Amino acid sequence: LLVNHDPRSSSQPFPALSSVSVCVRIQWDPEWNEVSTIFSYAARVFTNEFLLRGHGDMQGRILLALIVHGKHLPYKACFPNDGGWHHICVTWSSSLWAIYVDGERKDEGSSSDTSRDIHADGILILGQDQDSFGGNFTEPFFGNITDLNVWNISLESRHVRALNGCSAINQVMLFSWNLDHLINHPAVKELAK
Ligand SMILES: *[C@@H]1O[C@H](CO)[C@@H](O)[C@H](O)[C@H]1NC(C)=O
Ligand SMILES: *[C@@H]1O[C@H](CO)[C@@H](O)[C@H](O)[C@H]1NC(C)=O
Ligand SMILES: *[C@@H]1O[C@H](CO)[C@@H](O)[C@H](O)[C@H]1NC(C)=O
């Protein structure tokens, strides 16, 4: 699935971002332990601009890591590989980043390598890594993804807790979940059940 739309206009590109938060609910296929990309935002000049990936470990957990401007941050935030729904939020503002799982901050840090703005006019893809701008998909996600929202600020813990509990927050969204704002990439095939 390809997301390159703004809720206010069907062709508005992503602006350059000095802060961003992405929250999403996922159900991870418990049989799948490989590295999987939950979402990837690629810019024309830099494909690994902002992405979230995860993989299963031997202790029955799914570990999550952010990549910002190509810098792979640690795999530490985790949730049990229990086949259930989990709420994940990632926040980033210049050098500070955090990963929240089910409303709790599970990892955070700062990295001077990540301080420039996120490039504008990128392509956001759900469930695949992009090895080229908008293409060459790798690291598929197996499971369900819903309620992915994007903000142009770094959300605070209280916002994330509210979202995890399905409460609304007042912050303006850059992208709000709506199937009409998603495009099926031509490579996506519907499989017979
Ligand atoms: C995804 O959702 C469908 C429909 O609810 C369900 O049948 C399926 O088991 C879910 N997949 C995973 C990996 O949980
Ligand atoms: C996609 O990958 C193939 C094989 O690695 C490569 O030949 C091709 O140039 C890539 N396409 C783009 C658009 O980068
Ligand atoms: C976030 O987006 C809103 C609405 O487009 C805009 O008014 C605001 O200035 C933006 N904030 C930042 C920090 O870019």
UniProtKB/TrEMBL annotation:
Q: Quick one: a GO cellular component term?
A: extracellular region
- Report the Pfam families cross-referenced here: Pentaxin
Q: Which cofactor does the UniProt annotation name?
A: Ca(2+)
- Give the GO molecular function terms: metal ion binding
How cofactor binds (record note)?
Binds 2 calcium ions per subunit.
What PROSITE patterns has UniProt attached to this entry? PTX_1, PTX_2
Primary subcellular site in the record, as a coarse category: secreted
Q: Where found, per UniProt?
A: Secreted
List the keywords (alphabetical). Answer: Calcium, Disulfide bond, Glycoprotein, Metal-binding
User: By its UniProt entry, which SMART domains does this protein fall under?
Assistant: PTX
Q: Where is the Pentraxin (PTX) domain?
A: 1-193
InterPro entries according to UniProt: ConA-like_dom_sf, Neuronal_Pentraxin_Related, Pentaxin_CS, PTX_dom
Q: Which PANTHER family has this protein been placed in?
A: ADHESION G-PROTEIN COUPLED RECEPTOR D2-LIKE ISOFORM X1 (PTHR19277:SF163), PENTRAXIN (PTHR19277)
Q: Which family, according to UniProt? A: Belongs to the pentraxin family.
On assembly, the entry states: Homopentamer. Pentaxin (or pentraxin) have a discoid arrangement of 5 non-covalently bound subunits.
Give the protein's recorded name: Pentraxin family member
